[in-house]
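Section 4.2 – Deliverable D4.2 (structural model, holo form)

The reporting period included a commitment to supply a predicted holo structure for the target in complex with GLP. Inputs used:
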Amino acid sequence: MNKLVFKTEKALDEAAAGIIAALLQTKPDAVLGFATGSTPLGIYGELVRLHAEGKISFREATAFNLDEYVGLPRHHPQSFHAYMQKHLYDHIDILPQNRHIPDGSAPDPEAECLRYDELLRQAGRIDLQLLGIGHNGHIGFNEPAPGLIGGTHVAELSEQTRQANARFFPSFEEVPKFAITMGVGSILQARRILLVAKGADKAGIVRRALCGPITTQVPASLLQTHPRLTVLLTEDAAG
Ligand code: GLP
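Output (structure tokens):
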């Protein structure tokens, strides 16, 4: 595990975007794994800037998102489809057919999970997976549980996760109860993982995930087993 600690969020965002940019420069057809939430926003801002300055292109790249809420159509403002459009895809040159996000409004969510796993299989391994971490240690929407699922699946969101994400919705009741998420098996298959955490409120779970026992009750702790994990933390998240 390679751990990098930054004085400011901006320094972290620049470093993370720099790692993604370096990958695209050496491997233009890289397969990227993207995350949502507030943590990667600054990183996407940096990628947009680097693209606008002509330093990187996503034209040959492919991207997979970790997850999407079940029941939200893609144009819903709180969907992860809308998030990716607004913060990244509207501003870069990645081809529409190469942007993959689970379809939360698919009539048969289980079939959608199988479709997504097949797309991942066809793409080969993800070269670089960007990850945030939930306060309970979830990655994607893989919540703490006695056992974890390897492939894409429908996950029930914990009360804590719904509370945390309620800030993006008009009311708590409107936060979906289920999501389609890539499984931990697919996440761990990525060639390289960038785990990012910002803010003092993440310090406790970062410590448990990286220094505590490897347990499915802290899904992010499984990242300790990954051969190429880079952790980027702000000073307050590093505790
Ligand atoms: C979300 C996402 C995760 C994200 C996590 C933390 O619900 N499914 O991919 O890493 O919660 O979000 P934030 O970065 O806003 O703290």
